[in-house]
Design goal:
Layout (H helix, E strand, L loop, with lengths): L5 H4 L13 H5 L8 H4 L7 E8 L4 H14 L3 E7 L8 E9 L12 E6 L2 H6 L4 E10 L9 E3 L4 E2 L11 E4 L1 H5 L12 H11 L3 H11 L5 H22 L36 H5 L2 E6 L9 H5 L5 E3 L5 E3 L10 H5 L5 E6 L10
Parallel strand pairs: 1-4, 4-5, 5-8
Antiparallel strand pairs: 1-3, 2-3, 6-7, 9-12, 10-11
Helix pairs in contact: 4-8, 7-9
Length: 357
């Protein structure tokens, strides 16, 4: 019986006594072997990062985009996510590592070259992972996840409100920089962070654009690319504007306070006492619940998920805001209402709104 390999090795009678012909190999100089770095100049890049924010901001999509870009560059990538509460406005965090070879994904404090904060305070909460000399790109957008409520009845927020960002933090007004690109889908604004990150990571812009096109919804590709380019351009200008003396890094030059007053909730540059910060001061107004009675079918979902027990069903099984003063504006009811019958909006006091003169 002929072995399977015999079909490929069984020689003809004329070939049986002949040794392997190495004349070609011996008569020519062997071709020099190219190193992996020559084959792929990007193959030696490596880095670690943490992405943090609140559910619904596109954090998982952003981590997928970064991973895709790294893989397109021939790098090994590993990432891990915690997003069980993402659909309820809860905290979402992703660890991501890339390099020629990556064995573990979880980071320890002071191991990340970059932090991407999609929400201002969530980004600051994970600064312990930033290594000395690292950069944290943090959106100035503020959303309060339910875990941040220290005193739900009093409205206190258990967040380390900063009047000025610590060293290493680049505050980015993602919505303003994204411009019209974020009008249809607010999450597109966060692609600005990827644009800023791309300046530091060293991957070609073409790879980033391919990654964005492959990972975002097809209808939003063009808008995401606009936000990405805006983020790159803005960060390059920011580095020039904040560059210090010769030899001074961007982080050391981050002491400029010209942008602090534009950070929502910064108190105009004054220190903010978190124990005395109310929902009204945080949000810039008083949260109000508006319910369209004709749309409500009495499913009770909003009543069950409200952490402040603001809602209840009346005698007609229609949702009502029975305790409106306790609303913190977390938006869980509006996000989970299957009939979109609930809307949260702000009643802005006159002294906080635009002048009527």
């Amino acid at each position: 019986m002929t072995k399977a390999t015999d079909r490929f090795t069984d020689p003809s009678p004329d070939q049986t006594a002949q040794p392997p012909d190495n004349s070609l190999a011996s008569s020519a100089e062997p071709a020099p072997a190219r190193s992996s770095k020559e084959r792929n100049p990007l193959g030696e890049l490596k880095g670690n990062m943490v992405l943090a924010g609140v559910g619904g901001q596109g954090i998982i999509t952003a981590s997928n985009t970064i991973s895709f870009a790294c893989m397109q560059a021939g790098l090994d990538v590993k990432k891990s996510e915690v997003h069980g509460m993402s659909q309820r406005g809860g905290t979402v965090v992703s660890h991501l590592r890339f390099g020629p070879e990556v064995h573990s994904v979880m980071l320890e404090p002071e191991q990340a070259e970059w932090i991407l904060g999609f929400e201002w305070e969530e980004g600051l909460r994970f600064l312990e992972y930033l290594k000395p000399g690292g950069v944290a790109f943090v959106s100035t957008e503020r959303r309060i996840p339910p875990t941040a409520q220290a005193d739900r009845r009093g409205g206190r927020v258990d967040y380390a409100l900063e009047s000025a960002p610590p060293d290493g933090v680049v505050p980015i007004d993602t919505y303003a920089i994204a411009g019209d690109a974020a009008l249809e889908r607010p999450a597109i604004a966060q692609t600005v962070l990827l644009g800023a990150l791309s300046v530091e990571m060293g991957l070609p812009v073409e790879i980033w654009k391919e990654a964005i096109a492959a990972t975002v919804p097809p209808k939003t590709v063009e808008a995401n690319l606009v936000a990405f380019e805006n983020g790159r351009s803005w960060y390059k200008r920011w580095k020039q504007d904040t560059a210090g003396s010769k030899g001074q890094t961007v982080l050391q030059a981050n002491g400029s306070k010209k942008s602090y007053e534009s950070i929502p909730g910064s108190g105009g540059g004054k220190a903010v006492d978190a124990s005395r910060t109310t929902i009204e001061a945080w949000r810039g107004g008083i949260p109000k619940v508006e319910i369209v009675r004709d749309w409500c079918k009495g499913c009770n979902i909003c009543v069950a998920v409200c952490p402040e027990r603001v809602l209840s069903l009346d005698r007609f099984d229609i949702a009502v805001a029975s305790n409106p003063d306790r609303c913190t504006g977390c938006g869980l009811c509006a996000r989970l209402c299957p009939d979109m019958a609930i809307e949260i909006w702000l009643d802005v006091p006159t002294h906080l709104g635009a002048s009527t003169e």
